[in-house]
Amino acid sequence: MSVFGHMVWSSLVILVICLAFTGYTRGNIGYNSTTLLSNIPRQLNIAPYESLEVHLINISAESAYAIFQTHTQKHNLTVSLDGEHHSISEAVNGTNNGVVTLLKINQTNVTWYLFSNVNDTVNALVIAVTYSVEDPVAGGCNLEFPLENDPNLLIVSYNHYKAVVDHQLANIGFEREPILQPPICEDQSVKKALSYDTYQYFLLERDLREASYFSAIEKMLTVESILKYGSKIGGGLSLTTSVKPGQGVVYNVLVTENKGNISNTMAAYVPTVTYACSFNSDVDSCYAINDTLTYVLCTLSGVVGLFLCFFGHRFFKTELFIFGFLVFLLIFYIIFTVGTDLSSTVRIILSVLFGWIGGSLWLLFWWCCGIAELSVLLVGMVLGYLVTSVIFFTPLGSLSVWSSNFNYGMTFASGVLLVPVLLLYWAQKLSIISCTVVGSYGFVIAISSYAHSSLTYIIINSIRRETLDDFRNVVLSTSFHASDIILSVVWILLTILGAAFQFYRERGNHRFPPCPRSEWKRRREMGELLDERRPLLGNRPKARSYMNSDQAENYDEIT
Predict the structure, then answer these.
(1) Residue 515: what are its φ and ψ, rounded to 5°?
(2) Neighbour-count burial of 199, counting CB atoms closer than 10 A to its CB (0-12 exposed, 13-18 middle, 19+ buried)
């Protein structure tokens, strides 16, 4: 054999040895290994580009299938049923993953494969949850997703105000393999036997810590923990729910198999989490939720709110300007949002400008007419808007009847008008109550912007319902933590203190100051009377019967 032939054969032999060694290494040495017990979560530190074998051992003979789950806060991991092939029918990639393994007769161990594709250490929470033959199979009737049995919840889409959560159909429970045939998913009896309920669990506002993330996930992994810690928000295969950027929400679905007279059984899907923002992008970053303009406006709201709460009715002209400003600000913000494609900052600036003009026009109306009841009517409507928004902020606002624009619009408008109509007979009391309730809420908004409370969304949700057409199908779900409770108490106390102070200060005074235009005319005529060129008597104006000049001076204001 020639020298060239020897070289060729030697190269082939070396290549075969290398390939064989590589395959042996991949199958036996390339994987690290860890062990799990059923229904017990465990946290792992996965090295960059690490491959890991996860073994579930000592499986009970009563178990029919197992769901293996991995959860990370920021980085994607790949979970596979097969260590050699990562096809989409055998593997899933993401931050909240799960795969179903149907157990065979006498099987006591299961192995799954976990892969990291990032150049960073990834902290992950893993768990294997087992279910019996009586329990429904979460995702066992998958018709859309790649896996044959897909128990994963997907955040199909999200933005700054809503998230769409989707999942696949389940199947009723069945015996371990081999069996003749699993229940047919298209069978109507199978579909009718299963019902779905979506649960959620809130993290604290702006709590982006990984430890808090894992703690929240652990509360939504099993049927028992979901029923204990979760809040039911709806049912069906797809749910659109409201979100708050920067606040984590854990979602999970419980599927119930209705067995008539026999006790119903339940199974949990794989939970998923959204913060309605991004950890890995500068766009919609979780670390920069509010901009400078937001903080400036909220701070001004606090200053003006305190003024209204304790001195609003005393400085009546200033009160009218502020409430006129708020009404026209809201009206034009809705118009600019619905009718233009302007950026949020431009819409706010233009709305503030038109609000200023509107407040000035409403003040001019009072200056010319001086009709207290009509002027206070607008003030009362702002109170009605806030009270109605509070009612729709409660669970009553999530009723399906409000998905109709007509039902919502007529009910909301009735609420806005009902409050001033009921109190307009006592116009002074309506003015003081409106100042204290709206003013104290303005102060609470300022604190809320720094404390990250949910009370700001009392008004934000109403504005979104009026400007965003798809918001009518959103299930309103808002957290109510310690900071929200504290600010609610502060709101109530400020309202009581402000009302008591203003009612005490206004005791013995006339309900409203005189009409500015009439007073201006009176003073001008009095000035003409004191002119040396005019007779001391004659053409003397009649003094106002309900208020003398000393009392009128008590209502001189700084506007």
Answers:
(1) -60, 125
(2) buried
pLDDT in tens, 395-417: 888 888 988 899 999 999 999 99
Q: How far is CA 309 from CA 315, 433, 441, in A?
A: 11, 9, 9
- Separation of alpha carbons 120 and 102, rounded Å: 33
Please tell me the number of Cα atoms within 13 Å of 180 on its side-chain side: 0
pLDDT tens digits, 73-109: 999 999 998 877 566 678 899 999 999 999 988 899 9
User: What's the CA gap between 270 and 470, in Å, rounded?
Assistant: 27
Measuring CA to CA, how many Å separate 172 from each of 105, 130, 284, 524? 19, 15, 41, 89
Torsion from C-alpha of 493, 495, 496, 499, nearest 10 degrees = 150
Q: Considering only 163-167, 240-244, 521-525, which range has the smallest mean pLDDT?
A: 521-525
Phi then psi dihedrals of residue 202, to 5 deg: -90, 140
Reference 200, options 230, 229, 226; nearest CA is 230
Backbone angles phi, psi at 557, to 5 degrees: -125, 165
Nearest Cα to Cα of residue 225 among 98, 41, 71: 41
- What is the distance of C-alpha 415 from the center of its chain? 24
| Between 519 and 25, the higher pLDDT residue | 519
Instruction: Provide the terminal-to-terminal Cα distance of the chain, rounded to the nearest Å.
Output: 109
The amino acid that residue 257 corresponds to is: E
- Give the position of tokens 């702006």: 206
**Can you read off the two tokens belonging to residue 181?**
């045939």
**Amino acid (one-letter) located at 549:** S
Find the range with the poorest average confidence among 68-82, 311-325, 507-521.
Answer: 507-521
Euclidean distance between CA atoms 201 and 405, whole angstroms:
29
Alpha helices (runs of H) in 166-220, residue ranges in sequence order = 188-193, 210-218
The Cα-based distances of 296 to 64, 301, 303, 351 in angstroms read 59, 9, 11, 15
Could you give the angle at the alpha carbon of 137 between the alpha carbons of 135 and 140, nearest 5°?
160
3-class DSSP assignment, residue 177: strand
Locus of tokens 């619905």: 338
Structure tokens at 76: 């994607």
